[in-house]
Each structure stands twice: as structure tokens, then as C-alpha cells.
Amino acid sequence: MDTRAQIDAYIASQPEAKRNEMLTLHQLIFGVSPDSQLSFLDGRNSDGKIVTNPNIGYGLQTIRYADGSTREFYKVGISANTAGISVYIVGLEDKQYLSQTYGKRLGKTKITGYCIKFRSLADIDIRVLEEMIAEHMAREPAHSLGTA
């Protein structure tokens, strides 16, 4: 199955309300970055064991780890979870950046170093989310992460 078909199947598998919100986010990200490369992670590790929720990825960057190894990975990702939706902003060096820059304006969210979790799009200011995604998609990746 190709990437678009995997993404379509993943979104279609969600309950209706979450499916509609995932489609809204999908369209928002493409509106911000229409030529971004798509990827889909099914949540399985190399042994086939489920280790995370499936993710839809947008854009492409090379992440350099502290040990010198590199990996191609998406810039922005979205994922459905039991409590709502997660948006991933990958490759940030400053783990306080998201909360300090967007936290007060974004709405009812839980923000970690690279992840924004919320129950529903109705709980957040979607314009601020769009601003955050646009800024990150336009950013040149010069990021490194901790050890691999």
C-alpha cells in the first residue's frame, strides 16, 4: 500500500469526530506547505512490535544524533490518541521553545518539548497552530537530538 493510501486508511479508521479533525489538520498542513513530502509511520519497530501510535508525517529533514548518526524524518507529524490528537514538531533543539513561544496563545493543550496534545480543535486557537506549523516547515533543519 502506498503512503497516501496508508494515510487515507488511517484517517478513515478514526471515529467520525476525530476523523473530521484529522482531515482538517491534514488540509491545514498542506495549505501551509503544499509540496511537503508525506510519510506514514505505522507505530511498529523493526521487530514488528507496536511501540507508538501511527503518525502522518509532513516535510523531510535530516536529524543528526549526538553519536553522529543521522536519520531522515518528518518535520511535522499528527497522530490520533485515546485522549485526542497530538501534533509533533520534530527537530527542535530548545525543548522549551514551543511552550514559551506558543503556549499561552495556543489554548487548552499539553505541550512537551516537541509535542502538542489536545482533546479537540475546538480547544485550541487553530490560527496559532497554523503559525507554528508554517514557521517550522519553513525552517532550515540544523537540528541535533540526544543520543540515538
Task: Report on this structure.
The protein is α+β, with helices and mostly antiparallel strands. The chain has four helices and nine strands; from the N terminus they run ααββββββαββαβ. It has helices spanning 3-12, 16-32, 97-106, 126-138; strands at residues 38-41, 55-58, 61-65, 70-73, 76-81, 84-89, 110-111, 115-118, 144-145. The strands form two sheets. The chain has a six-stranded antiparallel beta sheet with strand order 1-2-5-6-8-7. A three-stranded mixed beta sheet has the order 4-3-9, with no helix packed on it. α3 runs antiparallel to α4 (126-138). The protein is globular and about 40 Å long.
Give a nutshell description of this structure.
The protein starts with a helix and ends with a strand. The chain contains four helices and nine strands. By secondary structure, it is of the alpha+beta class.
Main features:
148 residues, alpha+beta, six-stranded antiparallel β-sheet, three-stranded mixed β-sheet, 4 helices, 9 strands, disordered C terminus
Layout of SSEs?
Layout: H1 3-12, H2 16-32, E1 38-41, E2 55-58, E3 61-65, E4 70-73, E5 76-81, E6 84-89, H3 97-106, E7 110-111, E8 115-118, H4 126-138, E9 144-145
Parallel strand pairs: 3-9
Antiparallel strand pairs: 1-2, 2-5, 3-4, 5-6, 6-8, 7-8
